[in-house]
Design a protein that fits this description.
Length: about 270
């Protein structure tokens, strides 16, 4: 499969081509999303050699892209990654009335980022996005778009949408496609206002919300279900659901490697 990302060796040529396009009044083509119906693997834990059937891989921004396949770079843009609290300026950490840093109740080792100042957040995240492009990734996903829904009224949905648009702008300028991550209830506004190119949805089958993504993005949706949250429905039943995205996999919650206990990777037949 031909890589569609920007390789560092080609950066100067691409930059020159973009300059010519601007001077000639032409608009560069938008970055391409993953191929519809592609088999993908979600490797946010330790990266490993994907199954031979895999066409697309998602890895953390600190990892290398997959070799000879479409690669998506994971960036936690709306809250801090575990162990990376110090990577953020103190003034961008959300604080409550007592001036204590507010942590995600679902992920207590991740602090919320104050999304009210989009440009300040972009100043931190922008270099990570450009680093994904320089490393050879084809696209980027921005996690925790919906932190406002868990922040006890301290964050605003409108600010999240504005920040999302700015992050997508940076990704597109770097030659990367951009994925909406989760936030099913905001799909229509995020697609229309932030101009995401495709979506990555966790557990949309378990929560019966896959159509929120497919109604907007069509086949440009990658879906992950987890082994510990298919209550009352089997993975085969999820695969058979006509409302479910074409690209769907089953993974273990820890997103472990093949040698790890509990490792699971299945795709619909």
């Amino acid at each position: 499969m031909v890589r569609r990302g920007i390789h560092p060796a080609h950066a100067a040529l691409i930059g020159g081509a973009l300059g010519v396009a601007v001077l000639s009044g032409c608009t560069p083509s938008p970055p391409a999303p993953p191929p519809p119906g592609a088999v993908f693997d979600y490797q946010l834990g330790a990266p490993y050699e994907p199954d031979v059937s895999v066409d697309v891989v998602v890895r953390d921004r600190t990892a290398s892209p997959g070799e000879d396949m479409y690669s998506i770079c994971y960036v936690n843009a709306f809250q801090t990654q575990p162990g990376e609290l110090g990577d953020w300026p103190d003034e961008l950490l959300l604080r409550d009335a007592a001036r204590d840093v507010v942590f995600d109740p679902d992920w207590p080792d991740e602090a919320f980022v104050d999304t009210s100042d989009a440009e300040a957040v972009v100043a931190v995240v922008g270099p990570w996005i450009r680093g994904c492009a320089e490393d050879g990734f084809d696209a980027v996903e921005f996690d925790n778009l919906d932190t406002y829904s868990r922040a006890r009224g301290l964050l605003e949905r409108a600010d999240a949408v504005v920040l999302a648009r700015r992050l997508v702008d940076v990704a597109h300028a770097a030659g990367l496609a951009a994925a909406q991550k989760n936030a099913a209830e905001d799909t229509a506004v995020l697609h229309a206002s932030a101009h995401f190119d495709f979506a990555i949805a966790e557990e949309c089958g378990a929560y019966r919300e896959c159509d929120a993504y497919t109604d907007v993005y069509g086949d440009d949706v990658l879906a992950i279900e987890y082994t510990d949250n298919l209550t009352g429905v089997s993975f085969d039943e999820v695969c058979a659901d006509p409302e479910h995205p074409r690209s769907i996999i089953l993974r273990d919650r820890a997103l472990g490697a093949p040698d790890d206990e509990g490792y699971t990777f299945r795709r619909c037949s």
